[in-house]
Amino acid sequence: MPERFDPDARYPDAQADPRDLEDVRRLRVPPHLHDDTWQRPVTRRYVDPLDVVWLATVRRFGMYLRRDPTIFSMTDGQGLLALSTRDDLDADDCTAQMVLHELCHWVTNGVDSWHQRDWGFPLWDEIDVREHGCLRLQAWLGQRWGLREFFGPTGGFRQYYDRLPADPLEPIDDSEWEAVAVRIARDAVARVQRPPFWGPLSAAMEATARIRAIVAEFEDDYDSEVPDDPLTLLWAAAPTPPGRAPRT
Questions:
Q1: Are 96 and 54 in contact, with CB atoms under 8 Å apart?
Q2: For the chain, how big is the Rg over CA atoms in Å?
Q3: Which H or E element spans position 181?
Q4: For residues 194 and 188, is the Cβ–Cβ distance under 8 A?
Q5: Closest CA relative to residue 60, chosen from 79, 47, 84, 33
Q6: Could you report how far apart the first and last alpha carbons of the chain are, in Å?
Q7: How far is CA 162 from CA 85, 126, 149, 159, in A?
Q8: SS3 helix, strand, coil % of the chain, rounded to 5?
Q9: For 133-185, what is each residue's pLDDT tens digit?
């Protein structure tokens, strides 16, 4: 357990040199060491490490991701994966979660759906049973690495995801809908363990689990920058017992 600072303790070896304040009052910075008109060149972009993992995974699947405030998610069948801007997402949404969901659509709808707009989903408002099959695949993948809750979907589909049994390939009830959703999910699980899916996906899931393990070392001391934040840390979601990662 890392040591914690005690405000009431004395740390004589950590005191500043008393001469520092005297020098502060006495000295003025030479002009050649600081120019107030200087503009710092920005040559790099900070990206969340988990975003790097999943943006690279998108690229490994021959796609690229762009943000578009006019849509929630979309593929154009030519490599573009468009997601809504971050301002339009919920507090517990992240790039990794949304990318995984889209990739699960691709696996569920078959490899050829890469070439179809929106993975070949028809443009109507009714829920396609393949959506529930996709959510089961998503839960199955998350569970393999102890990240089932972490990778839960956003929006209204979370109600179905959270009702899935411990084994996401078992039906919720005896309806025909559930029988078909399970069949689709079982086919997708078999499909995802073969090329071209398993290599890049398993690497991304493994990296996410490793990052989660690193973050876990700091969770007890985490304090949100949002005052009186009512939300708990997504990283601190209770991990599901990881299953054995299947072999290809």
A1: yes
A2: 24
A3: helix 176-192
A4: no
A5: 79
A6: 39
A7: 25, 20, 8, 5
A8: 50, 5, 50
A9: 999 999 999 999 999 999 999 889 999 999 999 999 999 999 999 999 999 99
Query: Length of the chain in residues, anyone?
Result: 248
How is the chain split into domains, by residue range? 49-220+232-236
- For the whole prediction, is pTM greater than 0.85? yes
- In the numeric block, the tokens 């600081």 are attached to 34
Token reading at 131: 């959506």
Asked if 186 and 107 count as a contact pair (C-beta separation under 8 A), the reply is no
DSSP string for residues in 21-85 = HHHHHH----GGG--TT-----------HHHHHHHHHHHHTT-EEEE-TT-SEEE-SSSEEEE--
Beta strand pairing call for 73-75 and 80-83: antiparallel
